[in-house]
Amino acid sequence: MDPRDINFQMRSGIGSGQQPVDPNDALTLMAVTSVFMEKAYGDAARYARAMNHPEILGEDIILALKYHALPTSQFLTTTNLTERVGEWRERLVRMMVIEEDEEEEAAYTIQGWWRSVRPSNPPPAVEDETVIQALIEGMHQAALIWPQWQPNDDMGRIVHRAVERAERII
User: Could you give the CA distance from residue 127 to residue 136 in angstroms, rounded to a whole number?
Assistant: First the structure.
């Protein structure tokens, strides 16, 4: 499997007779999820600024997750998605390549690394008001559509369940 290929078969279920999940597929899924979260978190930050929130609220993040989870967001057709997934795969591999005798030090390094993750494309200092308004309207529309959305594919159902669980936590 090409490490930058985001098209792969998803398998799930205990005792389904399937072979274990291919580690490359699992790594790719984690990388796609990382890109998804990075994009959602960036939009949650822009939304929070536009709504004059003093900080990014959990509700802002949930709203951004819903916005990007819906098929209308076209997340899977994002420009440079394949490259971003490849970059995240490389980051994740670097995080996982830990010598056994360095585990304790590496655990601290990984925690520090996660705290320092920054979106690769930070928003400009002054954003176009039209773009921000479209984001706000899109996120509000996603909140209205979400309760009726019934995904018709495995990926959509997985993402829907994950966002629903996250929403129950906050």
Answer: 13
